[in-house]
Amino acid sequence: VEGDAARFWTESPPGEEERRAVRDSGVRREAAFTFGMSEAKVEPIRAWVQIPDGLAADLDALATFLDYRLLVRLATAENLALTTALLGHPEIARLPCDDYVHGILSACDEVEQSGATPHAMIVNPRDYYHRLVGRGGLLAELAEGNGMKVSRNRWVSPGDALVGDISVAARLLDARRSVIRVAEPPPGTFARPGVAVCAEVYEGVAVHLPGLFYLVTLAKQNGAFSPV
Q1: Distance CA 3, CA 117 (A)
Q2: Minimal CA–CA distance to 107: which of 165, 151, 150, 147?
Q3: Is 127 exposed, middle or buried (0-12, 13-18, 19+ CB in 10 A)?
Q4: Within a domain: residue 153?
Q5: Is residue 22 a part of any domain in this protein?
Q6: In the predicted model, what is the mean pLDDT of residues 116-125?
Q7: Tens digit of each residue's pLDDT (9 = 90 or more) over 50-67
Q8: Which of 17, 108, 149, 160 has the fewest Cβ atoms within 10 angstroms?
Q9: Could you tell me what percentage of the chain is helix, strand and coil, using 3-state DSSP and rounding each to the nearest 5?
Q10: pTM for the whole structure
């Protein structure tokens, strides 16, 4: 991928009239998917750390610090950027539910009704520990039956879950460009002045098959969290 945007093929869920026009859509939902082209931006993703006074004099310690802190912060920034891009995709269907586990299983069913397998879901850690762990072996059953991988991610809202065949439906756009440099951080990056180092990669996400994702959304009650 070169430049700030990439074009790629897509298959998207049809409108009702298009679905009716395809004779096999009743038994093969994906037969009515519409083919097209889309575009996604490849943008800089940045992370910053400040170098503690005196650390630069010890090159081995400095290298260890950058490995443990700068690269970890960069991975976090990547996670945030790519997750936000997925969650904001306009063609990913929303699946409202009154029961979190039922909503996830319904999303898995919807993905399989389109000829795919729900291999992964992204959930908030709060939901993972309070709504999924210890629920009658649910996670083990999904892992055994689907090869389901669960990613705990702070940027999925509590009560939501992104379920899909992620390895088939989406692809990382990587410009294969990375930079680590000493630079002046933007205002508000740190509370104190000091020497700062920035790590930067250029990435984006291409959603080829938005119909193989479902965003489960639990009905909120008075804005309060309930683990059941």
Answers
A1: 33
A2: 165
A3: buried
A4: yes
A5: no
A6: 97
A7: 999 999 999 999 999 999
A8: 17
A9: 35, 35, 30
A10: 0.89
